[in-house]
Protein: DNA-binding NarL/FixJ family response regulator
Organism: Krasilnikovia cinnamomea
Amino acid sequence: MLAQRPPTVWIDDSHAIVRRGMAACLQQADFVVRGESATLAPVPVVADLDILVFEYGSTALRRAVRLADGRATRLVATVRDVSEQAVRELVDAGVGAVLPHRTLTPDTLIATVRAVVAGTVALPGDMLARLLLHVTQTSHLGPAGLNARERSVLRLLADGLDTRGIAEDLCFSERTVKNVVHDVLTKLNCRTRAQAVAVATREGVI
């Protein structure tokens, strides 16, 4: 969970009217918009940036990952065409949420960014099947398997709970939940919580 202060956001999109529309929506929802850009050129240098909302493209994705590397910045991608390549690249890069342009509304934008701030992942339904196919081809259970506590945390992740929600449900500290999630990702050879849920579902673990 991010610090209890207004979350900071950077907006990136090739269309100025889209950037300004998203910025206005998020500002009305008490987010602090630190700036905007097109295709992340140049990559913004912003301290304490919580969320980067960017328009998907291979170049923009590489720049977004570079910006987030070593920071707590979380990534939200807007996508015009949900292709197989987009699914693979976004999942492998650890993007926390994907927003297809065809379903993008002020309410979905705000709800999705809030979910990512809370530590959850948000993928559209039509991406979940593709994600399952992708992880089937690229991931497998680690040799050590999962213990009961790890399976319990995974089930709650699959139910959409964030770190705080899991901690409250299982009477754990948030630090313990984060440690368990880290162990799960390591054992399942996954980079994101969404990947871990998909792999565990495929393997019948949850």
The chain is about 50% helix and 15% strand. The chain has two domains: 8-124, 139-202. The longest strand covers residues 32-37.
